[in-house]
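Archive maintenance. Older records in this collection stored only the sequence; we are now back-filling the structure field for every entry so that each record is complete. The fields below show one back-filled record exactly as it appears after the update. Entries are processed alphabetically, and RagB/SusD domain-containing protein is next in the queue.

ARCHIVE ENTRY
Title: RagB/SusD domain-containing protein
Organism field: Runella slithyformis
Length field: 570
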Amino acid sequence: MKKKIFSAALSLILLASCQNSLDLYPLAEPSAEKWYSTETEIQLALNDLYRIDFWQWDEDGTSNNFISDDGFYRQTLTPVKSGTITSQWAFSTTLWRNSYKAIARANRAILALNSDETKAKVNKAKLDVYLAEARLHRAGQYAKLVDKFGDVVYSDEVISIEDAYTKGRTDKKTVITKIYEDFDYAITNLPASYPVSAVKRATKGVAMALKARFALYQKDYKVAGDAAKACMDLNQYVLHPDYGNLFLQSTKNSKEIIFSIPRSLELKVTAGPTSDIISRNSGGFAAANPTWDLFCSYLCTDGKTIDKSPLYDPRNPFKNRDPRCTATIVEFGQPHLGFIYDPHPNALQVTRVSTNTKVTNNDNRANAQFASFNGLIWKKGVDDSWLLNGRLIEPEQTIVRYADVLLMYAEAKIEQNQIDKSVLDAINSVRARAYKAALSATTAYPAITTTNQAELRRELRMERRMELAFEGLRYMDIVRWGIAGKVLNRPIYGMLDPVDLRSKVVNQNLWFFPGTPTIDEDGTPDFSEMGKTGLIKNLVPTTWNDRQYLWPIPTSEIQINPNMKQNPGY
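Back-filled structure field:
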């Protein structure tokens, strides 16, 4: 089995190397004219569409969930918060380039699959599945492009480099229709499931879930709700029983995961950089951290926001919180990666768990200048196995999971004001799982009961943030809800420097931060009043620019193509 996997991986590398002409222009025809001549080559070509590079996350660094000691999580993502995105922004140009590479490869595969030669070699049932797989990938790539850029260059054919240099943008309404056609073909022709294998192939459920996501992003709520419901009705997926271990690299083939890209230490396909996440006491940097904004968005166990719940204690802020809070963010005073985690400025030493001895606390900014600036570090998906194998890890790259489908279904119905028991059950199923409770055990978790559209919309948005943090979905949520101009214009706050922290905050018994932010109508925390006290620090000044609701077409595309028009404001 290992030899087969290695052989497939090697073939993919060779395939990529023979398609370098795609780098000249992303829609151009690949140079490997004789590829796709056998069924094995077709399968390998389709395997190549499952690259992680082709399914790039938005990363929470583009939202207000993430902060880093570089000013904002990774310098490549800083322009989002500073309002300085340009047509040379590396993050967007990479997404554009990789998406069109995948589209070109899908188009080439579809052309080959529709040829008389291939039809003579491959039976129709298999041929329909292969075509469906290629069209699903094409739809998924165009969906990402439309979400970010609006009108995009569209082609469902293999074209020459010369034609690619003159092809302009297609109205997004036309592209949306084409995307739906591809998703629908995939839904009709893909199987509901496959045996477990090295390549996690796309299924009906994948096509339904991705169609629902795209439709939701385009505010096409009827289509989104129907696609999500169809996915639910397949009865192929269930919520993983333990939210806390769903994201660990040791958890494989969970029935909650609808579509993911596997990683492999053996094949050197790993996630990183993990040192940015690992605590400093454990040998990492703890440089990329959850924001206070995210931390304060978690409800209390009575289902109320922290500014409304009598259960919330700012002196003990992890107490009485939704379980996903401590499953996502390391709780103070608890073991984590071999040490008790305690960022309190007076905790100059902490306990090493294995020996029960005191050691220097490098997760404290009084000892280590670049320890977490707000005292928070990530726990979601992180366990002791991250310290092995040179800190290389192999968790699945989850693209979409069943909890998201349930919440997409609920949101689509809420926006149509078609609120019934199925809507409440969808949201409450996700919440009940967090509490390890049955849906019907409404005394064991704070079940949502309101049927008021505005109230339920707010509940849904808070639920999505708690459930899906650190999964690369927050940015598109705030963009499609039209609130990026508000939430990404609010500064990201953290603790004062150690000396000031001791004199102004700790001595007044105001640790962890001095007070409680208000939670607004969209369920997002507002620290502005706390910021005026001088007891917290503005770590990242922000200036969102509304032009960024659409990203700019890359400069390289504008320069080589006189028919390529730029988005407004760039």
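Update note: Residues 124-149 form the longest helix (26 residues). The two ends are 51 Å apart (CA to CA).
Entry marked complete.
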